[in-house]
Amino acid sequence: MSGSLAHELVHARHVLGGSSLADGGDRYNPRTGSGKEELRAVGLDKYRYSLTKKPSENSIRAEHGLPLRMKYRPHQ
After folding, report:
1. Which branch of life, at top level (predicted)?
2. Which of 11, 30, 36, 37 is the most buried (most CB within 10 A)?
């Protein structure tokens, strides 16, 4: 599975579960809901799998032996 697909599937899980933090704000600003949603989807900072035990792009990358993303930026 690609990292991009994993990332979007995590967003879909949040939307379908009613827990998405996206608020239409700047997704690159970690203080907005949208920025927090991106950090959560990737699995960064307080949203790391080791802390939350919830699936993220990075937890899926780890399962597949892919390198983890260290920060949120498109095409990274």
Report:
1. Bacteria
2. 37
Q: How do the domains of the chain map onto residue ranges?
A: 3-63
Global pTM value: 0.90
Mutual angle of helices 3-16 and 33-42, in 10-degree steps: 130
Give yes or no for a contact between 8 and 23, defined as CB atoms under 8 angstroms apart: no
For every one of its 76 residues, what pLDDT tens digit does the chain have, with 9 covering 90 and above?
A: 788 999 999 999 999 999 999 999 999 999 999 999 999 999 999 999 999 999 999 999 999 999 999 999 765 5
| Residue whose pair of structure tokens reads 């907005």 in the numeric block | 32
